Amino acid sequence: MTSPSPAVLHPETEPALDLLTVPQVTARLQLGRSAVYDLLRSGQLASITLGRARRIPTHALTDFIRTRLDQEAAAA
Questions:
Q1: Is residue 56 a contact partner of residue 27, using CB atoms and an 8 Å limit?
Q2: Pick from 45, 40, 48: which is nearest to 61 by CA?
Q3: pLDDT tens-digit readout, 9-42
Q4: For a disulfide at 18, which of 6, 58, 73, 76, Cβ 3.0-4.6 Å?
Q5: How far apart are CA 28 and CA 7, in angstroms?
Q6: Bridge partners for 20 per DSSP
Q7: In the 3-class helix/strand/coil scheme, how is 28-57 assigned residue by residue?
Q8: Interacting residues of 3 by C-beta distance below 8 A, sequence separation 6+
Q9: Is the dihedral of CA 13, 49, 43, 31 positive or negative?
């Protein structure tokens, strides 16, 4: 009999992968629904599709914001 992996014994050691809905992202970015879907469609904001539902990992939103901040800092 094998012992369970450490991640099973201590799930807090694995980083949680939180998924956001499009309405949650629209609220966080203070953008309209269409603008968020444009970001998803263009690939600027990563997402996954589960059935018919679109979900955005929190790290993808953070990466998007960092990228935009870096772009604006470079342009200034």
A1: no
A2: 45
A3: 555 555 557 999 999 999 999 999 999 999 999 9
A4: 58
A5: 31
A6: 56
A7: HHCCCHHHHHHHHHHCCCCCEEECCEEEEE
A8: none
A9: negative
Q: Is the dihedral of CA 26, 29, 35, 39 positive or negative?
A: negative
The encoded tokens of residue 18 equal 């939180």
Residue of 38, 45, 36, 37 lying closest to 64 (CA atoms): 45
State the pairing for strand pair 19-20/48-50: unpaired
Both structure tokens of 50: 């589960």
The label of the residue with tokens 């809905």 reads: 21
Query: How far is it, in rounded angstroms, from Cα 56 to Cα 50?
Result: 11
Cβ neighbourhood burial of 14 (10 Å; 0-12, 13-18, 19+)? exposed
5: pLDDT strictly greater than 60: no
